Amino acid sequence: YDQFVREQIAGDEISPDNPEHLVAVGFLRQGPWELTSMEVPRVARQRFLDDVTNSVGETFLAHSLQCAKCHDHKFD
Fold this sequence. Notes:
The protein is built from four helices and no strands. The protein is mainly alpha-helical.
């Protein structure tokens, strides 16, 4: 299970030449992403990373991480 989770989160970073690891991170790629020529690449990348972080937090920690961008819940 540990290896499965590791590959789901960062399979493309662990071994980028292995196509099976690229398939593993597919659930992170599924989202409302439509990159257009109007978007600033650095901003689009940051929005994507925010979404990935929140997806991983909700999936494996059972807690949304969206609030952590603005403030801190002392008891969560």
